[in-house]
Amino acid sequence: MTYYQKCLSIIIPTYKRPDALARALASVEAETVDGLVIEIVIADNDPKATAKAFVEQKIKNSDINIVYIHVPEPGVSNARNSALATAKGRYILFLDDDMEACAPWAQSMYNAAEKFDAAIVFGPVNAVMPDPDNQFYDKMQPLFSRRNPGEDGLIERGIGTGNCFIDREKVALPSPVFDTSLNQTGGEDDALFRELEKQDINIAWTNAAVTLEHVPASRATMTYVWRRNFAFGQAPTHEAADKGILGWPIVIMWMCVGVLQIISFGVRFVVMRLLNRPEAVFNLGRLAQGCGKIFWSERLSPKFYGL
Question: Which of 51, 183, 231, 263 has the smallest number of Cβ neighbours within 10 A?
């Protein structure tokens, strides 16, 4: 496709989160990158276009280059694919609508891409929990966070779309970029990055490009911990199964790992839960991952998006 070499597009997909969208947009309004023009693409994935009035008012009263598109068919892949098709920039920055960028976010991402000659760059995501004094929430925080304990530099695998930089000049993106069969279950970013990792590209990490993820109370629950970790557990087994008969030895290996996780963490979870200890969160997560490795069928995958 045709894009502008000196343009960076910040993409924010949104779905029925007006307050969160306002916060996310406010966090990037003042972003600048030396030598580049910045545009912000808002992809409203609500069939009722509930973000339209807010964004159009913002466009009317702002000097910032904001583009609004309506993607009526719900699905995280649909929203991101449509936004990418609209974006004019060679450089792409993804920010989820429940996230907040910490300046100088865009410049830090661009600097890392230049320094490491990287096609893709990732940065930290620090979860902001509904109640910082809740010990159970404290144990849930890592589930919503993304941290690299190491220094800035090259990494081997892609991580997640939120707080991700892509240089379209240096990578051959598939069509569609995000797998639409994963619209509701998620995992579309993992599928994309596994495909891109096969190419001769550099993938980098920078600690300087920090974002926050604001976790609502509705997701800070043991039920969500189970569903999210169950999906995590499914991923490696499902990835091996996709390789056909050659992947079946790996499928069996992961299922055996799952059995061991269930035995090990199942008992610990029951004990910690009976004692009402925050450690129950960790053990529930590992138990759910074990179950996911065994029950990896796509029809059992939890639905997270567009519902």
Answer: 263
Q: Domain ranges in the chain? A: 4-214, 222-300
Q: Which residue has the tokens 């240096």?
A: 170
* 303 vs 307: CA distance, rounded Å: 8
Mean pLDDT by 10 residues, the chain (307 residues): 90 95 96 97 97 95 94 94 97 97 98 98 96 92 87 92 97 94 80 93 97 94 95 92 93 98 97 96 97 93 71
What is the per-residue DSSP string for 285-301? Answer: HHHHHHHHHHS--GGGP
- The per-type count for the chain, helices as H runs and strands as E runs, is 9, 11
Tell me: domain 4-214, CATH 3.90.550.10, correct?
A: yes
Segments in the chain forming alpha helices (H)? 18-28, 52-60, 76-86, 105-115, 135-144, 188-196, 222-241, 248-274, 280-294
Crossing angle between the packed helical segments 135-144 and 280-294, to the nearest 10 degrees:
40
Radius of gyration of the chain (CA): 20
